Amino acid sequence: MNDLAGKHIVLGLSGGIACYKSAELCRLLIKAGATVQVVMTEAATQFITPVTMQALSNQPVLLSQWDAREPNNMPHIKLGREPDAIVIAPASADLLAQLAQGRAADLLTLTCLARPLERTPLLLAPAMNREMWAHPATQRNVTQLRADGAVVLPVGQGDQACGEVGDGRMLEPEQLCDALIAHFQPKWLAGQRVLVTAGPTFEAIDPVRGITNHSSGKMGFAIARAAQEAGAEVTLVAGPVHLPTPWGVRRVNVQSALQMQAAVQAEVEGATVFVAAAAVADWRPASAADQKLKKDGSGLPPALDFVENPDILAGVAQGERARCGALYCVGFAAESHDLLAHAQAKRARKGVPLLVGNIGPATFGQDDNALLLVDAEGYRELSHAPKLNLARQLVAEIARRLGAAAQV
Ligand code: C5P
């Protein structure tokens, strides 16, 4: 999706081995529709050449505050005023220190200092050795930079170029690109805590077999992402799917319906919105065998007994009504026909204010979907679109209803 269409980004690189990831970040930003002007410090050019960054950004890289190509000879003024955001990735410990002190010894720091605070957001992606990151001076600088209005992104954790392991890695290019996309989304759900279930469940028959379904988890993951982008604190309880965790979302992995129920019960405390998008298995084998079931030569399959799984959504909604709580519950219905009638009936049966219907077989595994929102007032169709696009619309609809509820 062209999530950064029309956005102009200044991408700053300071010195650090993570510069090799900035090439990919530049490519992703452009793929998402942005125009990118790269600015590099002298130290950054020790790690990656301006030639690479120019080829990827399709613009000459700016390196010096003495660049005379600008008619007024003040490249930093234009650079700070024109972009929709300045992103510095990697932001080295030294760069953070310079910015925290308001220093302006090179074009990149000069541009940051000269930017109008209310107009040009500054996002910093720190990258350094774990000791440098943990040092009180760096942490002090981070606190100062946040107080001064910069968005200091978190660091990743893991292997470092120096051979050590710990906090301080730069986030991956995909994460940085998603963080920037999220930055531009309207904050409909600021202050909300959203719990989402997604994906199928897997009900074990024995240690090697089980029952599951075709849910890909894509819709639920898109909702978790859209809620995070909208400013909510998001927890995603995910059945077995191979999808990357959306940027900024806390994920709890589960397998079975009972595990999903336990995770939801543990996480729902303090949540203000619950979106049940998971395709929970209706039944599970009454007892999973400890050992693999074997053919016994009789030609007969093993007799499997099933028991019904708890309805996680209905249980949460019922508990919430009993408590007269403020949790806003949203259910999903995957149907094969008569969507409106089924969605209305399901909304009543589950006892939730909003039920989202979709045609299951048409959407399972796809990147696109169409939704039917059913509430007390009636229904509204969200026409065929990419799931993330629909998820953003759904989040706006939920926010509107939360706003209305707050006014009651
Ligand atoms: O009854 P049905 O499975 O069609 O209901 C779908 C809705 O209920 C979805 O929101 C789904 O996540 C939720 N559900 C649940 N626990 C179940 C079955 C469904 O939370 N055991």
Give a description of the structure.
With 408 residues, the chain is an alpha/beta fold. It has helices spanning 19-31, 50-57, 75-81, 93-100, 107-114, 130-134, 136-147, 173-184, 218-229, 257-267, 312-323, 339-350, 360-363, 387-407; strands at residues 8-13, 35-40, 85-91, 122-126, 151-152, 156-159, 165-169, 193-198, 203-206, 209-211, 233-238, 250-253, 273-276, 283-285, 306-308, 328-335, 354-359, 368-375, 378-386. It is 36% helix and 24% strand. The protein starts with 7 loop residues before the first strand and ends with a helix. The protein binds cytidine-5'-monophosphate (C5P). Residues 197, 257, 276-278, 280, 309-313, 331-333, 346 line the site of cytidine-5'-monophosphate.
Task: Give a quick rundown of the structure.
The chain folds into two domains: 8-184, Flavin prenyltransferase-like (Rossmann fold); 193-285 and 304-407, Rossmann fold (3-Layer(aba) Sandwich).
The CATH homologous superfamily of the largest domain corresponds to CoaB-like
Q: How is the CATH topology of the largest domain named?
A: Rossmann fold
CATH C-level name of the largest domain: Alpha Beta
Can you list the strand order of the major beta sheet? Answer: 12-11-8-13-16-17-18-19
DSSP strand (E) fraction? 15-25%
- Mean pLDDT level: 94
> Taking Cα atoms only, what radius of gyration do you get, to the nearest Å?
25 Å
User: Distance between the terminal alpha carbons, to the nearest Å?
Assistant: 37 Å
The 3D shape can be described as elongated
How many distinct folded domains?
2
Task: Summarize the main sheet.
Answer: 8 strands, mixed
